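Suppose a colleague, Dr. K., hands you the sequence of a protein chain of 260 amino acids and asks what its three-dimensional shape might be. Before reaching for any lab equipment, you can write down a predicted structure in token form. Begin with the sequence itself:
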Amino acid sequence: MSGKTNKTVADSLETDELLLPHMPFLLRDIWALGCSLQPILDSIAALNLSPGNTAVLDLGCGKGAVSVRIASEFGFNVTGIDLMQPFLEDARKKAGEYHVSHLCEFIHKDIIEYVSAEHAFDLVVLASLGGVFGTLRDTVSRLRSQVKAGGYMIYDDGYLKQADSLNRKGYRHFRDHDTAIKELTFYGDRLVKEVNTSALSEEINAEYLTVIRHRGKELADQHPELEKNIRAYIQLQEEECDIINNRIEGALWLLRKTEH
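The predicted structure, expressed as tokens, is then:
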């Protein structure tokens, strides 16, 4: 990967470039990488879309948990986009294990670059990537450019429990609930469903911290020169989880793009 690409991937994983090659090891026990997988699947199931005619885009697909499960449970064709090559290799392996390799395509590309061109998917999913596209309004603008008129958008994120904004890197896009809904529906799209995911998020965060603490210790034993970086990464993740658990209300939004 180029220097710019390395930085982009490192920022998305909230780590430094020295630890980037070791992230597959630190996260090897986690497939869904923090997304609200079951609520995503439940929301899709309620749409009753046709298996043979439905194309799904999974932006920032990571190890392919969302993509593979969608393909497996609904028979949809899924395109997953991610910059982390080892994660894409895991995604392809999982697709094989679930016997849906013929339904899944995983592309190594920056999602910001990918959405710079318009596409016509039936459904796009953006799960647990925060404000990668900017504000909620900016995010919806990008998502709706990827689906046809009448298509669906699933955004797994959240809103502030209190305060007007949160001045912290990766959290500046969060708004209070009313403002969030206004931004999400700015272009006239319909909010079909909102699911509170806070309880699930706390469970995911607890599991996540347990895993990275364990793997972090193993990695530090193997690479003592990285111990300081590993400790800093784990501390940052602990802080992030505390913020998510106490200041953010987890939410999954299902939107339908206006047909005109």
